[in-house]
Design a protein that fits this description.
The complex is a heterodimer.
Chain A (H helix, E strand, L loop, with lengths): L1 E2 H18 L5 H15 L9 H12 L4 H13 L11 H9 L3 H14 L14 H20 L3 H34 L3 H23 L5 E2 L1
Helix pairs in contact in A: 1-2, 1-7, 1-9, 3-9, 5-6, 7-8, 8-9
Chain B lengths: L2 E5 L3 H7 L6 E2 L18 E6 L6 H10 L9 E3 H4 L3 H16 L9 E4 L3 E2 L1 H4 L1 E2 L3 E4 L2 E2 L13 H4 L5 E4 L2 E4 L9 H5 L5 E2 L5 H13 L6 E6 L11 E6 L8 H8 L4 E5 L11 H17 L33 H13 L4 E3 L6 E5 L9 H5 L5 E6 L2 E7 L8 H5 L8 E8 H5 L2 E11 L6 E4 H11 L4 H9 L8
Parallel strand pairs in B: 1-2, 1-3, 3-4, 13-14, 13-15
Antiparallel strand pairs in B: 5-8, 9-12, 10-11, 16-20, 17-20, 18-19, 19-21, 21-22
Helix pairs in contact in B: 4-8, 9-10, 9-11, 15-16
The chains are: A mainly alpha, B alpha/beta.
Chain lengths: 221, 477
């Protein structure tokens, strides 16, 4: 048995970790990622199905990583190239591919969703539909959920779990697997290949997890 | 692929049985899975444990820590082996051969399972999740976009739905019975614990590991039944109802003396698919009877004495794959040297019959046919509708799509017809297509135009004439 609050904290940490790993790399960030991985390993991460992909990422993170090569790979994959980024890390790109529609429509939809969830959007370098923004939003919801468990308010925790599930289903899962497929096709053996494989295993699991523990799918007895 | 086997045994079992080939024993492994040693240079793991002494979530966790895929760790219990070291050795060889043929599961194929109910006390505590293997659709192979929906009616839990032009799969609704896996005509639905190569390898390994005749029983991996009669070996599948009638027949051809599909009737299985199991066994028996073989070679009665093996050369074809039923019937027909025709509601093969009088040659049936058993070909002004029984899985998609089904334009008969299976393509219907006066392109088959004329009735001669002479692009110009 694990305390629900610990699982919420682990999930909060993992979303923050993957968001950080998918921002432009620098030396300090790499050290922070290594330290964070150590902390998360101390939690109950081994209980969950994504552990193997997580452990493989840990091996890659523990190896000698050339920061300048990482920077080049990051720009090539996620930021720009002769024909644009190889793997744009934004929801609007994939929604436009699948359903048409403009980038601005998706961005404003995501922004409205953040507002409805009670989350403010800090003006940063990444747009609201960027993978890091969506993962940070989920991390924030997990953080609120862990607070609810801490003060003994399971109803509020359940409501937050339902919000996470809905956000995952409608937003992140609607495009993230396709983004991951592109990264795997372009750079499976790289650091970002390992990051996205682990993040995908985690996100896919988290959809199932939130659905499984959500109050609407469980009954008090 | 290297497979390693570890086991747990009591001191009494150790003194009674001594060493068992191929298994390394670890004291109290059931209670302490952390004792499984790290550093094993193996890709797959097989475990021998005691039925009620281990916690599945803890076993899965340790497997994960050692970089094994927990969904691909078969657990053989001492109860399965009835404490018999020879039996245990055979089961380990079967399980090892099987997992060696399986590919790692994907994140989509793992489903966390938590207790359904919790109370106020356990609300703040979460149990370690246990993961079960569930299927995943290979979108590159799935032909749902062309019209196939064979998985939708096959699923007893309505986990598959067709929404907004896309096949959706609800993992939460799925009970992992595997019916979709065997119903999919193209093999696009994959459960990581089952593959044609793995089932074949397991049977072959168990047969080769014994000198005498054995029985192979396809059983549900959630079964509560553990004790099988001597020389009967369970072969776990996600649910017995996923096993088509040709699988136990194929097991005979691979060297089993008897085979069976064991339903969970006695264990109160909540899935309750006994009727399907019974129908599939019935088909296997009907097939054997038609080939003048003993119908009791496939039986739900495991108390039958086991005699000699089904002494035939094993088929080289893929008898457990998407078109495995066809291969099984073809191979059996060759081995026995006779043709059969068995009509049976559980037959996984079919024959399509088209009525040339009512078929309008719209070719919708061939467009949706997932295996291309139905196909159409046009040559100048001729349109041909052809059928290859060797590819028909009786998925009924053609009948579901036919706009003239009520007039009996098409019929799918569930038949194992060895002659038809080897006949190749036969022409079911042909039509002359009208040609556009303006551009020379095909307009429509004559039967279709006749049908339109009949539906419009008298007084529309000019319209029909116009429709017959102008293609879609040139109408109105």
């Amino acid at each position: 048995m694990t305390e629900a609050v610990d699982v919420a904290r682990l999930r909060q940490g993992l979303y923050r970790f993957f968001a950080a790993a998918l921002t432009h790399p620098n030396g300090e960030q790499l050290e922070l990622l290594r330290a964070a991985a150590g902390v998360l390993n101390g939690l109950s991460v081994g209980d969950f199905a994504y552990y193997r992909a997580w452990a493989r990422l840990g091996e890659v993170l523990g190896s000698d990583l050339d920061l300048s090569e990482l920077g080049v790979a990051y720009v090539r994959l996620f930021e720009s190239g002769t024909d644009g980024a190889l793997c744009p890390p934004t929801e609007s790109f994939y929604v436009a591919q699948a359903e048409g529609g403009g980038i601005a429509d998706t961005v404003s939809t995501v922004q409205r969703t953040y507002g409805a969830l009670g989350l403010g959007v800090a003006m940063g370098p990444e747009p609201p539909d960027h993978v890091t923004s969506e993962m940070n939003a989920l991390s924030a919801l997990c953080g609120l959920e862990s607070e609810a468990w801490t003060i003994g308010d399971p109803a509020e925790a359940g409501r937050l779990l339902a919000q996470q599930y809905t956000f995952l289903r409608i937003h992140l899962m609607a495009w993230f697997p396709r983004f991951v497929n592109r990264v795997q096709a372009a750079a499976a053996g790289s650091f970002y290949g390992a990051v996205t494989a682990a993040a995908n295993a985690y996100v896919v699991h988290d959809v199932d997890w939130t659905r499984a523990v959500m109050p609407s799918t469980r009954t008090d007895s | 692929m290297k497979v390693t086997a570890f086991g747990c045994r009591t001191p009494a079992e150790e003194s009674a049985l001594g060493d068992i080939e191929g298994v390394q024993f670890v004291d109290d492994l059931c209670a302490y899975p952390g004792r499984l040693p790290a550093g094993e240079d193996a890709d797959r793991l097989v475990l021998v444990l005691h039925e009620h002494d281990y916690v599945p979530a803890q076993i899965q966790r340790r497997a994960r820590e050692l970089n094994f895929d927990p969904l691909l760790v078969p657990i053989i219990t001492w109860e399965d082996a009835a404490g018999d070291p020879d039996r245990l050795r055979v089961m380990i060889q079967g399980a090892s051969a099987r997992v060696a043929e399986l590919a790692d599961s994907t994140p989509q194929q793992a489903k966390p399972v938590l207790p359904n109910r919790m109370n106020r006390r356990t609300l703040l505590m979460l149990p370690q999740p246990v993961y079960v293997a569930v299927p995943e659709i290979d979108r590159a192979v799935c032909v749902a976009a062309d019209g196939c929906k064979a998985c939708v009616p096959a699923c007893p839990e309505q986990a598959y739905t067709w929404i907004d032009g896309r096949l959706e799969y609800d993992k939460a609704a799925c009970t992992s019975c595997g019916r979709c896996v065997t119903a999919c005509p193209t093999g696009a639905i994959e459960n990581p614990t089952v593959s044609a190569a793995a089932i074949r390898a397991a049977i072959a390994a168990m047969v080769n590991a014994t000198s005498g005749p054995i029985g192979v029983a396809f059983t549900c991996d959630r079964r509560t039944r553990r004790a099988f009669p001597p020389n009967w070996y369970p072969l776990d599948v996600p649910c017995a109802s996923m096993v088509p009638g040709t699988w136990p027949v194929a097991a005979l051809m691979l060297g089993a003396a008897l085979s069976s599909i064991v339903s969970c009737r006695d264990s109160g299985c909540p899935l309750g698919h006994d009727d399907v199991v019974g129908a599939n066994i019935g088909f296997a028996k009907a097939l054997l009877t038609a080939f003048d073989l003993d119908a009791e070679l496939v039986s739900s009665d495991l108390a039958r004495p086991i005699h000699s093996r089904f002494d035939q050369a094993p088929p080289s074809a893929d008898v457990f794959g998407a078109l495995g039923a066809h291969e099984t019937i073809r191979c059996l027909s060759e081995l026995v040297g006779r043709d059969v025709r068995v009509a049976n509601a559980a037959a996984p093969t079919g024959v399509v019959v088209v009525d040339p009088e009512t078929c309008t040659m719209c070719t919708m049936c061939s467009i949706v046919c997932p295996t291309r058993a139905l196909s159409h070909d046009s040559d100048m002004n001729d349109l041909l509708l052809s059928f290859d029984a060797g590819r028909c899985t009786a998925c009924m998609q053609c009948a579901a799509t036919c706009p003239e089904i009520e007039r009996g334009a098409i019929d799918v008969q569930r038949i194992a017809d060895s002659t038809a299976l080897t006949a190749g393509q036969v022409v079911l219907n042909r039509a002359t297509t009208q040609v556009c006066d303006m551009c020379g392109a095909s307009v429509a088959p004559q039967q279709m135009l006749d049908r339109i004329a009949a539906l419009l009735g008298d007084g529309h001669t000019v319209t029909v004439d116009y429709l017959s002479r102008r293609c879609m692009n040139c109408r109105g110009s």
